[in-house]
Amino acid sequence: MRAFLNVLVTALTMVAVVFNISLYNGFLDQAIHNMVTTDVAGGHYRAPEFDLLSPTEWEDQTFKTPGILSSLPSTDKAEVLLLQGHIFPNRRLFPVQLRGMEMQQTLLDLPFDKLEEWNAPIDDVIPIIIGKQMADKSHLKLGDYVVMKWRDRFGAVDALDVQVVDVVPLVNVRLDQGVVWLRLDHLRKITHREQEVSWIAVKQFQGAIANTEFQAPEILLKDILDMIKNDRRFAVIIWIILIFLAGISVFNTQYLNIFKRQREIGMLMAFGMPPARIVRLFTVEGSLAAISAVGVALVLGTIIFTWFQSVGLDVSHLSETNIPIRENIFLKIDPVEVILSAVIIVAIMIFVAWAPVRKISMLDATQALRGRAIT
Question: Structural domains in the chain?
Answer without folding.
Answer: 2-36+223-369 (no CATH), 78-200 (2.40.70)
